[in-house]
Amino acid sequence: MKLLERKKNKLKFLGMTILKFVVKPKGIGVYFLGLHLKTLKSKLGQIIYNFQDNKDFDTRHYDKEIAEITADIKFPKIRPDNHKIAFLATRLFDMGGHSKCLRDLLCALNGKYEQKLFLTQISALQKDRPNIMSDINKYCTIDGTDFVIIKFHQCVKELAKKISSYSPKALFVYIHPDDIFGAAVLSVLRHKGIQILFFDHASHFPVLGMNFSDFVLNGLPSSEKITHKKRHFLHTKIVGLSSVSKDKTVYYSKADLNELKLNLGIKKGYQVTLSGGSSYKFFDKNNSSEYFEMILRILQKKKKLNHLIMSDITPEQQNIINKIFKNSPKEKQRLIFLPFQTDFDKYFQCTDVFIDSFPVSSALTQIDLMRNKVASVVKINKKQPELSFHEYQMPNYPYMFERVKDMENAIIELLNDPKKRQKIIEKNYKFWLKTYEISATRKRYIKILEGK
Fold it and tell me: What is the rounded CA–CA span in Å between residue 35 and residue 44?
């Protein structure tokens, strides 16, 4: 059943309804509503099917095949309007960092350019009704297309025409790594007069469509190296990420934060640590979790500490946690699980120390911690740099470590020393102001758009 569920999740990116999964003696037969077996065997179907389990960052051959499929879709050269820019994304979500990155960049460039957002799954807005839409609507208009695989060429033409008719000088790309439809649109629009800037927001995944861009915008030096050496794409720029304006953050009073702690079941006088992120970031490949083993040791050392986990833990993952805490019922009582929160700032601010997830880092969260004035301890993953995002920190950040034991000691040190916490909080906030705050990032993106 785990394999069936994994297949199901991987195939959802197509925006197709899965009719049923049938287990056969020789494997899994996958049947799609409206998708004939002949289509599955076609060039497009083979790309979709093969990319499901692809682990190779070099996706040039996939993009080449996509370009061959769309070669008969012809578009004239576009005369770009230097006052317009556009964005291409798959869909938007309240949770997760990618939609927030898009929103914050729209905000940063608002007023300098006319902006429009195009989505490859436009009807998902009606279904999800994400709260983030209320912000994005302040900065741009939204259009898009719903792709249907049996109308592939028609859908590609439709969205490509909408973008070309808008005539932007540049197109920022935020499509999902497996969005073959978005990639096909890029293959049609390349070399047509619009500068295609592919934002590497999924730097730890293979992605489709990157090879149709003029530049890949990387957030970190390590992700740029991955783009060069593993993706074999050399036209890159490091731009960092855009956060919100310094005036946008609400800093809550002690009374408000104490009330939140009380509602969470945290006793008066107890300290709080927090980790957050998609659940896969906390578990190793061999059905274990070095992360939760570390958390147990910290809870054993700090008797007046609650640890919060803001994630989407699955029943299987909960079983792993139960095994780790099997002989430590008192410590497990101080482990509190929370669903993802759209208003996470308040939860961050009630935290004494934020603990980075591993083996996959919490990435964009680190920037929000700087903004919220929260001390954090960060994990470095040198063996798999695509899973490590420590470079979001200031150079020589004193609380990032490769060894788990060093990380654990630093967490205890910060919990025990409020002066050290305050010192690193102040340094982090100053670094955020000059590196990620909207006025700083706005200048960097304008330079790219103006060719400077």
Answer: 12
pTM higher than 0.85, yes or no? no
Task: Split the chain (452 residues) into runs of 10 and give each run's mean pLDDT.
Answer: 41 36 32 42 79 88 93 88 94 72 85 93 69 81 87 92 95 93 95 92 85 87 82 86 81 95 94 92 89 97 96 94 96 94 89 92 82 92 64 83 94 97 95 88 86 70
Q: How far is CA 197 from the centre of its chain?
A: 17
CA angle in degrees (0–180, nearest 5) for 357-176-69: 145
- Kindly list the structural domains of the chain, giving each domain's residue range(s) and its CATH number in brackets, ordered by start: 2-53+60-69 (no CATH), 81-245 (3.40.50.2000), 254-435 (3.40.50.2000)
Alpha helices in 230-344 (DSSP H): 254-263, 290-301, 315-324, 329-333
Residue type at position 400: M
Strands (E), 175-318: 195-199, 215-218, 236-238, 271-276, 305-310
Q: Decide if 397 contacts 378 (C-beta within 8 A).
A: yes
Burial class of residue 48, CB neighbours in 10 A (0-12, 13-18, 19+): buried
Rounded Cα gap, residues 368 and 371, in angstroms: 5
